[in-house]
Amino acid sequence: xxxxxxxxxxxxxxxxxxxxxYGVLCREYLELWDGREEYKFLRRIDGVxxxxxxxxxxxxxxxxxxxxxxxxxxxxxxxxxxxxxxxIDVLEHFSKEEGILLLNNLFKKNKGILVSTPKKPSPQQDVxxxxxxxxxxxxxxxxxxxxxxxxxIRDNISHIVYITREQHSLNNLISRLKILKRSRNSSLVxxxxxxxxxxxxxxxxxxxxxxxxxxVYRKFKRN
Length: 223
What we know:
Blueprint: H1 2-7, E1 11-15, H2 21-32, E2 44-48, H3 57-62, E3 65-67, H4 71-74, E4 84-88, H5 96-107, E5 112-118, H6 141-145, E6 149-153, E7 158-164, H7 167-207, H8 211-222
Parallel strand pairs: 1-2, 1-4, 2-3, 4-5
Antiparallel strand pairs: 5-7, 6-7
């Protein structure tokens, strides 16, 4: 979520939204944690889920619009330009040719794409009666790198990368991620110092209650 927060998108297209996990997370981190302290949605977050059995009342609440077409067919008919497109655990469900076509078509209108795809996809067939869950392709880091300007997040399981065709978008992302990291490191240092002071204070209190320790301390102090 750090990467999504740092992009600061005012519009998101969640492709392959499944049970709505990332729609919920985007609403929470982008809307409820933005400092407004207002339970009001200002951003446009749309979802694409071709398997209609996954769609529940949650989707209708979280997403502004839910599309149930195959994204391969839908992409050129969307009349909106999104700041961020999520392709999280999606690319491996398309053939390599379909995946490249999809990515290129998405770049025609949208600013950036967040891709997460397993480094070693399992030999998965249809799940929950959904043929779109079949794994069809394996993507390498080098292939994803050729699609545009990119920033990878280290992960042992998946290739996680933000791709854009706009250099300033990439520069802004990297800058915000650095600020976020410094802020968290600073908070961690303060927390550790506070914990250390608390431990020292508690230890002193306990030691001062032991007569032998008190006598040794007083003798040392006089010398």
